[in-house]
Amino acid sequence: MARRRRAxxxxxxxxxxxxxxxxxxxxxxxxxxxxxxxxxxxxxVGPSEGELAPDFSAxxxxxxxxxxxxxxDLFNKSWGPGGDxxxxxxxxxxxxxxYCWSEGELMSQLHSQWGDExxxxxxxxxxxxxxxxxxxxxxxxxxxxxxxDGCKTNSDCADRPGDSHPWTYVDDLxxxxxxxxxxxxxxxxALLQPDGIVAWNPLQHENDxxxxxxxxxxxxxxx
Amino acid sequence: MxxxxxxxxxxxxxxxxxxxxxxARLREGEAGTMTMLDSGLVFSVxxxxxxxxxxxxxxxxxxxxxxxxxxxxxxxxCGSVIGDxxxxxxxxxxxxxxxxxxxxxxxxxxxxxxxxxxxxxxxSFTTYSLLAxxxxxxxxxxxxxxxxxxxxxxxxxxxxxxxxxxxxxGFLVVAYLVRGRKQGGIWA
Lengths: 223, 188
Fold this sequence. Notes:
Chain A has helices spanning 13-39, 98-114, 136-144, 178-181, 212-219, and strands at residues 57-61, 66-70, 87-93, 118-125, 149-151, 155-156, 168-172, 188-192, 198-200.
């Protein structure tokens, strides 16, 4: 029986050159990346606790005209635990969502309790649900609690529970920020440290049942 | 005005790469082609380093809200460009990383050619280099448009981003000339 010998095809110089070039390229790129890490380490950005909250810029309404708003402008990067600086509540709502409508009262309570230590920001999105069409007039009326038919689909915004909200409302009707924030639905309320690090995300407290009020009490204290 | 040493270093790199390309055009045969390839390699290394630098600025701005690695005020600055949350990434990937990966590819193609310019794949690699360089042009046009019209307080010019853009354009010109040498029979 003839014995068949399987010989490996010899690699030509062509392949060796490309492999060497690839290794040199990999080494050079890796060295540059390592130098970058030493110079300025990577910052983990995301909505989970301990991560830097995803930044965004959009138009906002605080009772006057719509102006530019950038979340990171609220961050105090030199803040340390126990230091001065406002914590930040970021709330996502849809003005047509019934739960967001009801939460208007809780938010008013939270603001009256912690308004001195916590900056409130409400980001308004438009969920892709029939009857959830929204616009800036509706956002203004929802915030100010003024007459406007259309909140909670067909209710008068003036009837919203709670007081008028004296904080900033941000227009994200195009849902530009919801991907980065991984918003599963509305309402969604997170608490950020003054330096912009996410301190409390409701999705990480579904098992222990901790709500935003308890979280603010535990983390910010006072009031 | 403070002397920006990294910027001067990158500009020097671009000047060296350009000088090599000019010199290569005056030389015929293998020596000219080698010098042309060296020029492309220098362009791609400058692109790699400037991309890494912009990525470091990106991280620095995230970390501290500001950076000492580039000006953050005025027309020529990085803060409003690399620090803009809407425009500082491509599908969540910082532009610096995109630049690093892109220039790595360009560097690999030219390094392969430089190491064995008589290889059987040399012809296709000259074409790939040109196509890869061309693929970057729409991104450069888009990013310049963003700098000048879209970022907060536009127009702004990010100097290190511009170095990366010039590196790509320089590489593209060299890749075109290299391919011309190959096609025109003056390769070696």
